[in-house]
Design goal:
The chain has about 110 residues and is mainly alpha-helical.
Amino acid sequence: MSKPSTGAQQLIGDFAPKLVDLTDRVLFDDIWERRELSKRDRSLITVAALIALNRPDQLRFHLHRAVENGVTEKELIEAITHLAFYAGWPNAMTAVLIAKGLFSKP
């Protein structure tokens, strides 16, 4: 039985197979599974970095992942508000609009 297709495989598998391999094997199968930080903490760190770097495409995915890893929507909104003063107002406004769009859907 083959392993289920990952998000990276679905998005770019035929176009950039090595990048998919590194994403799946190194990032998600190794880095995200290290025990030194909880997945919840990794999610908060990742969301903060993506907001600071203004990476909205990856932020959409990681906001959902953060909720799956135990971060509440309220905590994410608070993190975005806090980051407005450290990562820039425009980055926080972009992030909060993305979060509103994602979390307002039924």
